[in-house]
Amino acid sequence: MGATLEALQRLQRIETQLRSVRGQIETKRRSVQAHQRRLATLERQVADTHELIRQAQAESDRLDLDRKAQDEHIKRLRERLNQTKTNKEYAAVLTQLNTDKADALKIEDKVLAAMGKVDDLKKREAESRATLDKEKARMGETQKSVVELEAKLSAQIKELEAQRDLAADGVPPEALKTFERARDKHDGEAMAQVEQTHPRRAEYICSGCNMSITLETINALQSRDDIQVCHICSRILYLDSSAGVAAR
Questions:
Q1: pLDDT digits (tens, 9 = 90+) for 191-205
Q2: Which domains does the chain have, with CATH numbers?
Q3: Does this model's pTM top 0.70?
C-alpha cells in the first residue's frame, strides 16, 4: 500500500474515533429531544383535558339549573293541586305533575352523569399532570447527563480534532477533497476495503456497496500510489495487505 492510502487510512481511523465520541453526545441529545416531544404531547393532553373539564362543568351547571327550575315548577303544581275546585281540574294538574316529576328524574340522572363525567376528567387530568411532572424530572436528569458527558469528552474531542488536522496535513490536497466528499456522503465512512468474493476467481467487490470492482482498479491499487474510488458509491478503495489479494 502506498503512502497516500496509508495516510488516508490513518485519517479514516481518527475520523471514525471522532465520530464515535461525538455520536455518544448526539445520542444523549436525541434522548433529550425525545423527552421534549413527550413533554409537548403530555402538556397538550393536560390542556385538552382541562378544556373538557370546563365544558363538562358548564354542562353540569346548566343541567343543575334545569333541575332547580323543574323542582320549582313541581312545587307550584303541588300548590295548584291543593287549590283545584273540580275533579277535572284536579286530574289535569295531577297528570301534569306526574309528567313533570318523571322529567325531573330524567334531569336528575343527567345531572349525576354530568357530575360523574367531571370527576372522571379531573382524575384523568391529575394522572396526566403526575406523568408530566415525572417526565419533566427525567428530562432534567437527561439534560444534566448531556452537560456532564460533553464536559467529560471535551478534551478527548479536542485531542482527536488535533490528530485529524495533523493527519489531514499528510494527505495530498486532491486526495483529501475526495476523502471529505466521500466522508460527508457516507456518514464518515470515506473508505472501503476491496473484498474477493471467491478464493479461486478474480472477482472483487467494494465492501461499502457490494458492487463489483474491475481488475484494472485492482492492478492500479497494487501498482500505483494514487487513489481509486468505487464507481458506484465513490468511496476510496484499498486492499487488505494481509489478505493477499491478487489480480489475474
A1: 999 999 988 888 999
A2: 3-169 (1.10.287.1490), 176-243 (no CATH)
A3: no
